[in-house]
Amino acid sequence: MRIVGGKHRGRNLVRVGKDTTRETADMVKESVFNMLGGSLNGIVLDLFAGSGAYGLEAISRGASFLHAVDHDRDAIKTILENAKIINESSQVSVSLKDYKRYLNTLDESLFFDVVFIDPPYDFVVYHEVLEKLNPHLNPGALVICESKKQVVLDDVILSLHKIKERVYGIKRITIYEKIKDL
Fold first, then answer.
1. Phi and psi of 33, rounded to 5°?
2. Helical packing angle, 73-85 and 53-60, nearest 10°
3. What is the C-alpha to C-alpha distance for residues 171 and 175, in angstroms, rounded to an integer?
4. Pairing verdict, β 171-178 and 160-168
């Protein structure tokens, strides 16, 4: 597993190394970032972060700050180690919380520009998470949901509109954009 683009391209990352954490293949990660246009900016949330690979890839491609959240202590240690590997520890904040606790205690002044939602495949919480996150998304924010391919998410959820969707083997990538308020 490695950073596939941006200023840290080619750097190897450490895996969490547990059956409970499913790492996204580099090829799929590269395809996701190609769908996003390659480079990113703003503040990123990597919910269900695992090793932090999605969020750290975003940092490598220009995002200014990463909030990585996972409920597993080994995942948190891995994210911190990976942030050190790419010399970006000052651009990363980690939270050892489950997604509900994190979303319910989210600072009302915190807004995200990019969000990665990649829960375990048997944990279908996309609507709940998107509803809780919606008030914390800047206009034009992108939300990337990774699910098993059988899970087809709605075209519109609140002010989030599905803009892209692709299937890669056993996984489906769904990308939403928050439309600007009228």
1. -70, -30
2. 20
3. 13
4. antiparallel
Pairing of strands 65-70, 156-157: unpaired
Q: Nearest Cα to 74, choosing from 8, 141, 18, 128?
A: 18
CATH code for the structural domain at 26-178:
3.40.50.150
- Gap between the Cα atoms of 69 and 4, Å rounded: 22
Both structure tokens of 129: 């998470």
- DSSP, res 55: H
Q: What is the DSSP letter of 27?
A: H
pLDDT in tens, the chain (182 residues): 899 999 999 999 999 876 666 677 778 888 899 899 867 889 999 999 999 999 999 999 999 999 999 999 999 999 999 999 999 999 999 999 999 999 999 999 999 999 999 998 788 899 999 999 999 999 999 999 999 999 999 999 999 999 999 999 999 999 999 997 64
Strand (E) or helix (H) holding 117:
strand 112-117
DSSP 144-169: EEEEETT----SEETTEEEEEEEEET
How far is residue 60's CA from residue 86's CA, in Å, rounded to a whole number?
8
Say whether pTM exceeds 0.90.
Answer: yes
